[in-house]
Every structure is written in C-alpha cells, then in structure tokens.
Specification:
- 3 copies of one chain form a homotrimer.
- Chain A is α/β, with parallel strands linked by helices.
- Chain A has 11 helices and 9 strands.
- A 9-stranded mixed sheet of chain A has the order 2-1-3-4-5-6-7-8-9, with helices on both faces.
- In chain A, helix 8 packs across helix 9.
- Chain A has a single domain, classed as Ribokinase (UDP-N-acetylmuramoyl-L-alanine:D-glutamate ligase, 3-Layer(aba) Sandwich), CATH 3.40.1190.
- Chains A, B, C: This is Hydroxyethylthiazole kinase.
- Chains A, B, C: Pathway: Cofactor biosynthesis; thiamine diphosphate biosynthesis; 4-methyl-5-(2-phosphoethyl)-thiazole from 5-(2-hydroxyethyl)-4-methylthiazole: step 1/1.
- Chains A, B, C: Belongs to the Thz kinase family.
Chain lengths: 273, 273, 273
Amino acid sequence: MLQKMLENVRMTNPLIHNITNYVTVNDCANIILASGASPIMADDKNEVSEISSLCQGLVVNIGTLNSRTIASMLIAGKESNKNNHPVVLDPVGVGASKFRTETVKQFLEEVTVTVIRGNISEIKALAVGKGRARGVDANIADQITEDNLSEAITFLKAYAEKVRAVIVVTGAIDIVTDGQTSYCIRNGHPMMSSVTGTGCQLSALIGAFVAANPDYPLEASVAAVVSMGYAGQLAFERLTDKDGNATYRNYIIDAIYRMTPDLLEKGAHYDIR
Amino acid sequence: MLQKMLENVRMTNPLIHNITNYVTVNDCANIILASGASPIMADDKNEVSEISSLCQGLVVNIGTLNSRTIASMLIAGKESNKNNHPVVLDPVGVGASKFRTETVKQFLEEVTVTVIRGNISEIKALAVGKGRARGVDANIADQITEDNLSEAITFLKAYAEKVRAVIVVTGAIDIVTDGQTSYCIRNGHPMMSSVTGTGCQLSALIGAFVAANPDYPLEASVAAVVSMGYAGQLAFERLTDKDGNATYRNYIIDAIYRMTPDLLEKGAHYDIR
Amino acid sequence: MLQKMLENVRMTNPLIHNITNYVTVNDCANIILASGASPIMADDKNEVSEISSLCQGLVVNIGTLNSRTIASMLIAGKESNKNNHPVVLDPVGVGASKFRTETVKQFLEEVTVTVIRGNISEIKALAVGKGRARGVDANIADQITEDNLSEAITFLKAYAEKVRAVIVVTGAIDIVTDGQTSYCIRNGHPMMSSVTGTGCQLSALIGAFVAANPDYPLEASVAAVVSMGYAGQLAFERLTDKDGNATYRNYIIDAIYRMTPDLLEKGAHYDIR
C-alpha cells in the first residue's frame, strides 16, 4: 500500500501550492521536489486563487502567520475546495497566541480540510480549545508514550470524526487516524527535533502524497509519515561524529530523494488499531 | 573571454541589490558570495532607492511576488537606471497569474532592463502575451530541443531586439542572445531541476557577472550561465548513491566557490550562432 | 566560565523569540537548536507580545527591515523589558539607509537592550551617527587591526557605557565589552565572511546564551562569540578542496551542535583588557 502511494507521487508529479512560513520554506520546496512532486509558493491574495486552481493540492502552514496572508489562505482554501483538491493544514504554534488560534478556527470554519498535521499540543489546542504549547514545540506533559497511547488514540479518533479530516500527530510515536482506522508509526529518530521544520517538511510531503492519491488521504498520509520518519533513520545512520543538525537536515531530504517504493515498504514500522 | 568575466567579479567584488523571493533567497545570497560578489537584500520602499544607489547592480525576482514590494521593485529599478547600473529581471512564474503578468509588464514599461532570465514558458508568456507555464516550471510542450533549436533562437533574437535586452533562456539547452549574437550552451545536468531555485540562483549570479562587466552584458551573462551549468556537472560528479537534491544544492554552490577562470574556460560547452 | 555558560544553555533550553530577516532565518533557527536552545520566529504585531512573554529572550535583527514589522519589534522589545528578558539587537546595515538608522534609533530610545552585535561600521554608525557601511558589510577603512585595537576598545567601552549594554563587534578580531571589562577574541576564520548570515547566526546564538545566563550578559556574549568563532575554525578543518561556502555553512552549525563545554574552553583564544 505504501509502495503504491509513493509510486503515484513519482508518476503523477503533482503541483503543490504552499502558503507557508519564511523559516522552513526552502526545505519544504526541496522535500517536495525530493518526493517527485513540484512546489509553488505564492501568498498574495491577488493571485492565490489562480495559482491554487493550477495545482493539485494546497498546504497551509501558519509558522510565521501574518495579517497579510490570512485572506490568501482562505481564498486558496476555498478555491481548492471548489476544485476538489486536497487541503493540508499545519497549525504551527496554535495555542501559543490568540492570533494563531483564531486564524485556525476561522480557517476550519470556512475551508474543508483533508489533513491536519501537528504536534500533540497543537492538536489538543484545536480540539480542546486550550493548548499548552511551548512555542512551536509540544509540551512535555502532553507527550504520547506507550502508557497513554490508547487514550491518545481514542481522543484523536473522536477529533478526526468531529472535523471529518485525517489527523496526523507526530512525536516519539506518530498517530494517523481518520476516526475509523488508526496507524501508530514508530519510524523516526529523536534527533529530528534538532532540525528546524521537520514538521513543516512533513506537512509539505503529506501535501504531495495526498495530491497524488486523492482517494486515499489516510493511506497517503501514512506513507508520507513513514517516508519522513524512515528518512530520519537512514539519514542518522550516515552521520559521522563531526556532523550535526545542519548536515542531518540535508541527509533527511536526500533520503526522501533516494527513497524507493520497496525501501519504504521494508523500512515501515507501524501497527493498525 | 569567460575567464576575464569571472576574474572581474573576483577583482571588483560588486555589491548586488536583490529584491527577491523568500524561498530561495538564502541560496541566492550564498551563490553571490561564492562568485566573489556581495549581496544585499532589501525590499522596503522606504529604503530601496538608497540601497540601490550604494550597489553596482540590481536583481529583481518575482518568485513570491506580493503587493508590498511592487513599488519597491519599480523604485529600485528606476534608481538603477539613473545610475546606469545593470538590472536583471527574473519573471518567475509569469503567465501563471494575471498578477505576475501585469507586474512584469509594468516593470518592463517603466524600467530599462539589461538581462531577462527565465525558462522558455516564462519568456514565451512575456513575448507572446500568453504563457503555458506549469507553475514555476516550463511546460513540456515549450521545451527547446535540437529539433526546434533554430526556430527558438529566431524567436528569442526577435524578442531580444524588441526589448533591447539580453535574453537568457535556461533548460536542457540554454540560449543567451542580445538579438545579434546567440550562444547555445550545453553545460548543466538534468538533476538541477530537482533543486529549488537553481534558476533564481543563476539570475543572482548573472547580476554579479553583469555588474562586474557592465560593458559586456552578453558575454557576462554567458559566463554566468556556463558557470552555473558547469557547477551543476561538477557537483553531480561528487554525489554518492546516498546523496540527493539537498547535498546537490550545497555542492553546486561549492563548485561556484571553487570555480577558477581556467576551469570555467575548459569546462565551457557552447557554440555561437 | 565559558563552560558554565554553554552548560546552562544545554540545561535550561531557553525559548528564544526572533524577529529577523528572511535571508538567514533558517540558519538562525538551526544554530539556536544546535546550541541547545529553541527558536520561535513570529513577527506579526497581533501576537508578538504574547509570544515574547512565553520566551526567555528576544533577538531583533533588521536584515530585511520592513514597515510592517517595526511596530512588532517595539512591542516585543517592551514586553521583554517588562518581563526582564534579555534583548539582543542586530542592527544589520544600519547607516546604509535612513530607514534603518531611524528605526534603530527609535528602538534604542524605547527599548532597553542587553546586547548590541554588529560589525564595526554598524556600531560606528550607531555611536557616531554617521556610518560608512558597505551594504551589510563593514567598510574596509573601519576594520579593527592590531594597530588600532586600543583605540577601538576605548571607543567601544565609551559607547557601551553610554547605552548601558554589552557591545559585541565582530571582524578579524572580535571585541566584547560592557564598558568596564573588554574581551579581545581571536577565534574565527576569514572564510566565515563568505557565508551569508554568520553575523545573524551569532546574534541568534548570543540570544540563546544570554537567555540561559541572564545575570551574566558579558560572559554569556563572550561564550557565544567564542563558540561561533571556534566553530568556524573546526568547520574549516573539515573542508576538502571541493567544498566551498555552502558546505562550510553546514559544518559551522554542525560544530555548534557538537560543541562541548570542555572543547569550548580549550579552543577559546582571547585576552581581557
């Protein structure tokens, strides 16, 4: 199943419209290219409708949210809905400011989203209305462990059902659920949190996978999450004792570029609940 | 000839004012430094006139065009004209939205440009008024091949004459023409299209070369195009089977840093028509 | 002393609010992570007060200053003052435009800053009111050498006393002074100037060190400057004859990631005046 998802990205080369932050945008563009899809970044309200309609998918990321682009996000989201293009939302830092929380609330009211990806604190902020985010990182008290895994899945399934979207929560254990079926994914490496924007990159990658597999948003999201996590493992194996997070950043994107459908299937480490 | 162009960048260390996109801006700054020139990025309308007048050249790139910076592009362009500084225009994605098309049209009406660099779809959108751009990438139907090369050159020469600028079109074969003399350049590597912003980087590099060789915009542009393409070849040779587009991105800039006038001359692969 | 400063960054993992430029922002985020701190970039006036209050320190960098974020810088600065969080100012290119000069003047009037880091031309522009900046680089006529070192220190001590802040001037020799005690630091490598944003990265790093050591802004700044310079030396030693400024950029951040308190102490090369 994962193989087919990646094959479709490589074969259909979907064009992905990104309205994103200026911190990690270059890595997002390069990881989309590494996957076999193509990125376009455009955020002015005078053109986002046209740009979105040219594309096969939209990724909205509020990492450096500013007043100028909120209207653009809404216009692009609605245009994507009109064209039945998948919409991925990355609510970076939601809960850390009213501005982020209210913008995401409005976006979810006006736009139908296909996938929401965040860390557990961000998803809790969305679902419960009050987050404990530590800036753009998950609060340690929120972390998903083997002990609270069942509870977390139950919570995320309920939220996925409520918003009718695939929910992707990343952390030590990643969970992907559409409210019916849930995947617990144990790929990845702790050092990934020392690279800025691995979450943003994953959201961009989900955009590529879901646009290439529009009828399988759950499976496509799982394939993207496993790709990213397994790339983090493969990249870690290459590091010498002089390499740090900058080289690691490059090797993760390199590993997505070199990923094959077979390699992905073999490296996947998940169970379905 | 190419040797002299690069020597002049290294010797005169021109300061290049860039009004550019937030996706590839860091790579543009580093490739300008790699060439021996210095970059400054500034896009607020309250300072672009002063900044442009401090510099020896201007590069305007509309990759993430937004309403705020259109006025800045026009002010900086006019200031550069007043000071006889070369102006390089990279009309990223022109034809993909009315907003981009109209902005470029206005820029070309109000500012005298020295060089326009784009992919063939972008240049067609400018010349014919209607493009078939696929986002920021060239449309496959537009691609220049050995079969349509003569026809493409005739078309580009006519457009260069009309706008009185050097036209640089990059793709599998690169063409540089001032309307009289045309260079067909066969450096480069297909993998360059898997790195975001190699086109933007080339436009920045052209800015450095043309600013250092203001009386030779055609030859300076050719030297920049050959440098970029040959750097792409040298960088490719270094890749291991684990390296992907992120490492390749770094190696391309590294190769510009290590380029010598002799190496450039020896690696050049072009004919003049 | 330096050891303790780095240990505190690693142990307390301070959250650093950055209002910065879009050229070097990704490297700033990654170097903050490499040091053991965490970055958050947020620049909209609707949220900067909340974001700053969540953090332990603020870094304001005017590299691509624009009208939209000036208010944000002031709000975040005042909020940080209210919470007794350290504020680091990087007045990139001050003196190159009235817009930058006036913005920095206003910031210094309304916000109490803990550290100001710049090249010598920028600090002269601040102190004397008229700079000779060459864009974002120091003017060669301003450079600190062994010959004018005593004179430079006297000048910088007086300015530090006047603004009641730690002044960090980087160049071939780095000077850090609080007006009483001055450190002359001889770490670093000339090739660092061929990487865009090593100055910005250092300012971000100072933010991390000062936030983790709020009672020792002088010593924390020295530790950050030595870390950056020594990282530049260690990174240079790794370069092969094919590597250039892009690989060097990554290796510098890697070296910060791999820096240990012991290594830092051993590699430090400074005298106190």
